[in-house]
Amino acid sequence: MKNGTEHDMTQGAVAVPLIGFTIPLVLGNFFQLFYNAADSIIVGRYVGERALAAVGTSTPVMNLVILLISGLCMGASILMSSQFGAGNYEQLSRQISTTLLSGCGFSIGFSVLTILVSEPLLRLIQVPKEVMPDALAYLRIIFIGILFTFIYNFLANTLRALGDSKTPLYFLVASAILNVLGDLLFVAVFGWGVAGSAISTVLSEASSCLFCALYIRKRVPLLCLGKRWFVFDKSLMKKTISYGSTSAMQQVCLQIGKTIIQAVVNTQGVSVMAAFTAVNRVDDFAYIPQQNIGHAMTTFIAQNKGAGKKERIRRGFQSGIGIELVYGLILLVLMYFGAEKIMGLFTSQEDAQVVALGRSYLHLVSWMYILPAITNGIQGFFRGMGDLKVTLYSTFMNMAGRVLAVIVMFLVFNLGFVSLAWANLIGWIVMLLFEIPLLMRQLKELRK
């Protein structure tokens, strides 16, 4: 049932296949972020500060919905990794069809709902009147493409669950290139503003769906289900909902925290909003690759859990944490010494206040990147073990600590823009204090 596109992680070396699986995930994530950042960079340069603020203030609301969908995909992929590792291909095929059918229905309904409530959501986070029209147009167009977002994420996560992280990378690269070309055409040439940027994003997502589906049909026999695409297994659906809802709640918790912080920032004026949009994009480049290293650990650990190989689980965790730490140190150097040039990508030199605010933030937060490297590795371990409640609770504690710190330091004591970086530090410390005792207990169990 297997072919060359799949990678069985239950046999052979540990570190080398884990690194080999991680590298395409990290590269793919950079292209995904480039895909997202293209909107901000091109809109900021060709339309202006107000349009950049509109894209930035829309992002937390947009991500809240998208992360609900990706949470379902992530939960299903953990189950698929375990089923693949155990060699249970019949259950794997039923898992795939059940998740696809339910996810498509959910995506269509959610697309309609979010288009209707876009304006109230933007008002809830106190988007300024001068930014509202552009933010609303951007958000509604993005929400039209939710179905494409789900299908691509589902197919890509399915391939990764089978150990193939390279193929989704190729489709992300193609999609990112199409998104940049579309942004330049619709925004710079046609002058469609933020609406043109959103249209480009939706079209590029649709193309990635098509590429992925065609590839699976031609190259992955295990996933060519035929009539079995329409099999719906209620018992598997219950387990998928359990995993997917916990994973989705974790993502939503994270995004609600970010949205509250965005609402606080929105009270400080357009320049502060623009600076926060820029540093958020930079933070994405820093954090999300760390998360994908954790996702590689999740796949490795879930496959080996399905195969009942405890020692490989322990060794996989150790190797994954090592990769995370090396990446965290690289980020420290790049972000600290490249802060001003990085900010220059998002705004012109005439916006001196925006550049100065972003530079001060990056100089401080670069020293802290080692902490999320550790937390993401630990979260990857717990996801792979199927203990998603730990990842949910730790994420809640992280965001609660961060939000409270922002309110106290930024609003009450008026400590300025860099207080946003100090709030990150507080959130990560709280998260680690919760996770480490539970991690020690799990590792002890694996030694028995």
TrEMBL record:
Name of protein: MATE family efflux transporter
InterPro entries registered for this protein in UniProt: MATE_fam, MdtK-like, Membrane_Transporter-Flippase
Key words, A-Z: Cell membrane, Membrane, Transmembrane, Transmembrane helix, Transport
Listed NCBIfam families: matE
Keyword Nucleotide-binding: no
Pfam families the record matches: MatE
Subcellular compartments: Cell membrane
Species assigned in the record: Mediterraneibacter gnavus (Ruminococcus gnavus)
Keyword DNA repair applies: no
